[in-house]
Amino acid sequence: DMVLSPIAVAHLIMASRWMDVVRHTMYDVDANLREMSLLASPLHVEFLRALLVWVNASLEAPARQGGPEDEECTYLRATLYCIDAFFSFCYNPVCQFETGEAIAILGREFSDCFSRTLQTQSSSLHHGASNAKRWGVAQAEASLLNTVANRVVQAYTEDKSGIVRDKSVVQDKKTEARKYSSETEAQWTAMIQALRQNEQLAERVQSEDEAVGSTVVYISSMTDPDSHDYLRNMPMDPGDSLPDGIDFRRNLITASDVLKRIMRHQPHMYKDLATLRRVQRMILAMIKSARKVNDHVSLMKVHFAIIEAGVTHLIVQMLDDEVFVGAPEDVTETAWKLLIEVLRQEELASGAYTVNKNMQQALYAVCKTGDDAGMFRSFREILVTVASKAKASRTLKLLTNLVDEEQMQISDYKSSLFDAVRAMEAMRLMVEGHYFPMQQHLHSQSGNTQSCNVLEAATRLLSQLIKDPRGGDSLLLEEIQCISQSLTLLIELCQGPNLHNQVFVSTLGLVEIASRLLTVKFQDICSSEGDIYPPTVRRLKALLMEAILSLLEGRLDTQIHVTVPQRLDPQTLKDRMEFVYSYLVFGMVGVSTKAIESDAIAAIPLDSNLVVMLAPTADPTEVCQALLPASVLAEELLEDLSDADIANYFSEGLKMMQLIFQVSAYSPQFEEFVTPVSEENEEFVDDPSHYISDRQFTQERKKYYMRYRYRMAFDFLRRFVKTIEVILDGNLHNLHFTPPVTAMWYVYGEAKQHILDTVPFSSPDIKAKAFVQMCLQVHRESKLIKDLSRFSIVPESLLKIAQRNIPDWMHRPFQIFLCDDAKNMGRLLRGSLYIGMFLALHVSVFLVTPSDDEQDHPEQSEWSSPTAGIVADTLGLLYAMMTILWLLLTIAIKVPTAVISLESNGNARVNPLTSHGTTYAVSRAVSRMSTILKSCILVVLDGNILWRLTLLACCFCSFFFKHYSLLCFVLLDFWTQSPVLATVFRAITAPGKSLLMTFLGSIIVTFVYAAVGFKYFRQDFHDFCNASIMECTENIIYQGTRAGIVGLSLMMSKIVPESANWTQRLVYDMSYFIIFGIIILNTIVGLIVDSFGALRLEMEARERNQETQTFIACIDRRTVEAVCQSKGISEGFYYHETYKQNKWDYMAFIFHLCESTQEDLSGPETQIKQLLDKGDAKWLPIGRSKFLEGSELGTSKEDQFHRIQEQGKILASFVDGNHSNLTGITQSVGVLDAAVRERLDSMLGGIREVIMEMKQNRMMAELEKEQGIPQEAFAPLAAYTMGLGATTTVGRRGL
Fold it and tell me: Do residues 321 and 373 touch, judged by C-beta distance below 8 A?
């Protein structure tokens, strides 16, 4: 009963820690790390005996009042864990050691001691509680004691009976794990499974891992010494300290630093598997902790740290059993899981993930620089294991009753299927987004010791799983998931397009596999999900069609297009399209009319009467008669569907329609078979008298309704598939896509007309770029209109019930105004205009001046009767409500659109990788608020909204301040709502700047004339110019405006020719009249007239352009008409613009690119999306059309953009060649110039010498003649002069 002393407490704590160290370093380690000599030594025997004495003494000691101390319980747990670890892992091996007899004897003593603790055990339910009460310990320690006692007794019994663990269990060929006896192994495995299935333990382990991962992720914010929060709490005085909870920070530590430090010990992990497991869990926890709180910035930092630290190299090596020798299966499984997690980026609303492109490139660099054969060998082994177990599992599934061993075999098969799904998902993420280098690497790993063809492995697994089509009805859900994952992997490997992979996969029988699977009904899956066409089956069959489409994607040859109709049964396609259509119509109508109880959009349970209607043996006449009324109701329900609903229920039929369009161009027989017979070409007559017998009539009617049913299905699904022509790499391609619901139902006709009225048409490329930008703007508005239209005041959980039982206008407030092309929005404007007109007329009639005795303020007015005031108030309230409602709806659409536009064209943003979470969040919030404020200002300053606000202000001022005459201003709304007046107003406002400057010039002229009049004609102006020049200017402007073109005549006194200032006044008055009354006023009129003319010419040119050129390709109409006439098509221009290159289909395609994720786009769509993000419109087929290129009258097969690029390249090469030629010519001319100059200098020098010699001879002759000196006397002088001249010439030449 004594309280423990502090020394005893410290002793117990240190002893507990030391026990943990012994357990982790000596007992609970791999077999190859145990020191058997130490474990069998006398010192170790003495240690174990001391433990036995202490435990025995503790059990025999009476229970103390108040129970043991916490430190004693901790020491007891540490001791029991240590004993348990020794007898679990080391007792039997040590007993077999040559000096292990002492340990065997000691084991008997332990067994006797712990056997006594088990003698009082009566039931497992009350055992822990009874022993806890008996020993005076907590129930947890008592349960642990019982577990250890069982372990000790069992280990001693097995050793005594000679069952040795190392000899009874065959060593695992992959892991070199510890060797146990079969019975102990089973118990150990059972205990581990029980621990793993313990929810509380799993949650605790997961929470601890997440805590560690979160700490590493956010360690930079915890250790940054320059953090604002840390610096704010720094003590200023020497005696102060940091607040509680804030530690001193010395250096910044980042997640990258932690991972780099771990990677330094990578060589030691090859044998230290426990450390490797901890590293795996920590990295997974880092990723999950950042993803769990939806912190994209931290997730980017984690991925960056993983790449920078080289963890990708470790992940690849984890999957190589030759590097990590003896790695157990859990390490390999965790490595595959880790590979998937590091490649995933953000989670989408659909549950899918985006891929991290930087991680893809880092993994590719690791694969190319090292030997990754181990990873692919592991992948191949996983798939081969599934294929080897598939046959046996198919046999077991045919049995009605399975024994336990067979159940375990099925469970093992499901586990292998899950492993295969995980491995294929990792491979898919490595090539996600059509990463071409990795696609090639997965096909063949050049440089590896052994290559694995991932395409072949996945296809062979697929063929093994569905080898017998009759067994498809009994496929497990896990098998279908594995098949779906195989198809998804093959799709990603073929898209891009990867032409080599497409050809290779087509030779492996993928089309035949798809054809077989399309006919399978999957009865077991349908039975388990309770529907004739469950989501799992819908997804699988849509993937089959998408896989075939991936083989045809982006190909210009016919190598695969021709073989697909030969391998795929077209009748199967027709049957499946009819089934999908009938299921949708009957299922949607049944759910909406409550005939079928389901939360889905469409459903047909297995016990429903509608199952008979979808059977192949159903009477076509009855089916069509039931389909006709149901299809009408289904058409009304389509608008409530989302893009996810269409993809969920329509995907198989829509992919089939795309496949039909894709293949029909290359196979006329296939096209003829799958194209339904038009109603005009039907030969059936619903009259028995036209047939030989009633039997023939019945047969023909049955065939007619079969054709009619297929035609209904074909026409219905065709509405959801659009086809456009695009240019990729200079080649013309057909693209088939499903437009989003935004493009189908929420694009207003006003928006389309605005594009037609404003798109520039000066050149095709400018027109194409402007059209694309306008479509993007319309998409932003249409998406907001869709969100507002579908906004409901009903909670999300009750929304489906409200859609089925309540009219839309009762729970969707915006739907009533935005539906039917926003007709009610236009009606709001027209209603406000009519009410404003009635209000203005009411004011003009019933607003009177007060009587003389009540007229305190002459400017006031009143209503003629109280009734007139009530009517005015009512009309004013209606006008204000309608205007406010229109403003709210318009602002709700335009403000988010402006926000998106500003964010896309905004300034530099905060870099999330170089900023901390709090700083980034604050900066982001401030930037967001600033953007919203700017957007609101821009929207309010919009012309239409500003005009409505002005009219609304006039209405409010008239009633609040009793200025009812302001209500007459609402009639000005006619100028904006009348198309004719709006055109006039636009013509007046178009030259607004010029008109404004003209008015300013007129004011300047008036000011100058006022200054002259004030100086010289003040008396003639009378009282108009007595005060100042400014007052004179104001009077001239006002009085001159009143006088019209008369000018100054009404302001100044009249004069006659006899007057003294007749000449001055004549010049003054006439010049003002000419400048102001003629020139300036006519200038204003001319500007307005020119504006009218320019608008009219632009409208005529626009109409002429739209009538004479195709909108997208800008091809002359005469060319289109000539080609259509040669093909027997009437109204060829309309046919081409509607069915071949419909401009609104291109708009829908832009919508499709904007609303689809990167993972859902095909290869060509991804390329166009990249061009769209850059603002490049060269993917539009300017100057080209497939319909015309097949004719001699058609256009050239060379794209205009491509031709311009080629001409630019030729011109550039020509300029480069000319530049080199010009350089050579310049050098040659320089050399020639130097030679010519030197030659000329020498010639000039010789000429000068000759001239000098002639001068000297003439001079000597003259001297001889005058003085009689002989010529020989001048010889020395002549020689000196000649030498001087030569020297001068040489010196000049050198200079």
Answer: no
* Count of other CB atoms within 10 angstroms of residue 366: 18
Residue 1222, burial from CB neighbour count under 10 angstroms (0-12, 13-18, 19+): exposed
The pTM is what?
0.72
Residue keyed to tokens 């020395």? 1276
Q: Residue 585: which residues within 8 A CB-CB, separation 6 or more?
A: 627, 630, 631, 634
b/e per residue 614-640 (b: at least 16 CB within 10 A): beeeeebbebbebbeebbeebeebbeb
Buried b (16+ CB within 10 A) or exposed e, 401-415: eeeeeeeebbeebbb
The runs of H, that is alpha helices, within 86-181 are 91-96, 101-119, 127-135, 139-161, 165-168
Describe the crossing of helices 454-465 and 477-494 by its angle, rounded to 10 degrees: 150
Helices (H) and strands (E) in the chain, counts: 58, 6
Contacts 24+ apart (CB under 8 A), 328-333: 328/172, 328/174, 328/175, 328/177, 328/273, 329/174, 329/175, 330/277, 331/273, 331/276, 331/277, 331/280, 332/378, 333/419, 333/422
The pLDDT score that the predictor gives to residue 579 is 93
Report the C-alpha dihedral over residues 1178, 1179, 1184, 1188, rounded to 10 degrees. -170
Give the chain's end-to-end CA distance (angstroms, integer): 121
Question: For the segment 520-539, what is each residue's pLDDT rounded down to a tens digit?
Answer: 888 889 988 999 999 999 99
Q: In the 3-class helix/strand/coil scheme, how is 651-667 assigned residue by residue?
A: HHHHHHHHHHHHHHCCC
What count of Cα atoms within 13 Å lies in the side-chain half-sphere of residue 1229?
6
The count of other CB atoms within 10 Å of the CB of residue 1056 is 6
Residue 1021: which residues within 8 A CB-CB, separation 6 or more? 1013, 1014, 1032, 1035, 1051, 1052
> Are 312 and 342 in contact, with CB atoms under 8 Å apart?
yes
Identify which of 136, 184, 137, 138 has the alpha carbon closest to the alpha carbon of residue 159.
184
CA 1118: distance to chain centroid?
A: 42
Residue 633 has, within 13 A of its CA and on its CB side, a CA count of: 17
Q: Is 784 helix (H, G, I), strand (E, B) or coil?
A: helix
Cβ-based burial of 337 (10 A; exposed 0-12, middle 13-18, buried ≥19): middle
Backbone angles phi, psi at 323, to 5 degrees: -85, -55
Answer yes or no: are the C-beta atoms of 647 and 1155 closer than 8 Å. no
Amino acid letter at 69? E
Nearest to 32 by CA among 367, 272, 310, 339: 272
Low-confidence ranges of the chain (pLDDT < 70): 1-4, 59-68, 98-99, 116-141, 143, 157-186, 196, 324-327, 400, 469, 851-860, 904-924, 1042-1047, 1190-1224, 1226-1228, 1231, 1235, 1263-1295
Specify burial of residue 177 (Cβ count, 10 A radius: 0-12, 13-18, 19+).
Answer: middle
Q: Bridge partners of 723?
A: 736
Cβ atoms 793, 813 nearer than 8 A: yes
Within 8 A by CB and 6+ apart from 1207, the residues are none
State how far the Cα of 220 lies from the Cα of 227, in Å rounded to an integer: 10
| Chain center to CA of 472 | 36
Tokens encoding 345 = 């980026």
Residue 362 burial (CB count, 10 A): 20
CA distances for 1053 relative to 796, 1004, 1020, 1021, 1032, angstroms: 83, 24, 5, 7, 15
Task: Look up tokens 């289109």; give the residue.
Answer: 1120
Residue 353 parent element (H or E): strand 353-355
In degrees, to the nearest 5, what angle opens at C-alpha 425 toward C-alphas 284 and 380? 105
CA-based max dimension of the chain? 168
